[in-house]
Every structure is written in C-alpha cells, then in structure tokens.
Amino acid sequence: PASITVVLLSAAARLAQLPLVRSACAGLSVLYTDTKRSHPGLTSVCDVLESSVTAARVTVTPVIEKLEPHISIANAVACKSLDWLEASFPVLLAPTDEVSSSF
C-alpha cells in the first residue's frame, strides 16, 4: 500500500498561505524593494537591519529550541483558532481579487 504523508503546517505557515496575507506580503515586498532602489541612503540602513535579523535568528535558535514544548502548545491553539476563523469566515480563503471586486 502507498504511504500517505501528512504535513502539519504551523499556524504561522497557515496564516501566510491565506490569500489576503499573501497578497499583502507581496505588496509590502515590492514596496520595500522599490524604496531601497529609490532611496540609496536607506539601502545601507536596510542592509544592516537585514543582516541584524539574520544574526538574531542564529542567536535566538537555542532559546526557541528550549521553549519548543510551549511553542508547540501555543501553535496547536493558534491552529484551532485558524480552523474556526476559516470555517466562520470563508472569505478568508477566497482569492484577493475576488474579495476586492465584491466591495
């Protein structure tokens, strides 16, 4: 028999896949990139901030690993809340252009 692989997404990953969130993130990404290109003075500031975030991620990883059981519980609660939101508000799953055209 073929094995079935079940992939459980974190609440953050599920939230990021919602069409409205994906659309907003894409728009912000374009705005960020355009701002860096248009304002050379901000480019160096943004580059420093980006490298700082990368460094912070490495520094925080041991703490996250230690807190993983608590994070797992919080993630389960957040996933149940997302289940409820998606069931209660199906518009959250609709494509962004479909939602915006209905207003």
What layout of secondary structure does this protein have?
Layout: H1 11-17, H2 19-38, H3 40-66, H4 68-88, H5 96-101
Helix pairs in contact: 1-4, 2-3
Describe the structure.
This protein has helices at residues 11-17, 19-38, 40-66, 68-88, 96-101. It is mainly α. The protein has one domain. Helix 1 (11-17) packs parallel to helix 4 (68-88) and helix 2 crosses helix 3 (40-66). It is found in: Lipid droplet. Its main location: other.
Defining traits:
Perilipin, mainly alpha, 5 helices, lipid droplet, 0% strand, Perilipin 6, 103 residues, flat, signal
Apparent shape: flat
Rg over CA atoms: 19 Å
Tell me the major beta sheet.
Answer: none
The succession of helices and strands, N to C, reads: HHHHH
Low-confidence stretches: none
Report, as a whole number of angstroms, the end-to-end distance.
49 Å
The assigned structural class equals mainly alpha
> How many separate helices?
5
**Helix proportion range:** over 70%
Mean pLDDT: 89
How many beta-strand runs?
Answer: 0
- Count structural domains: 1
Q: What percent of residues are in strands?
A: under 5%
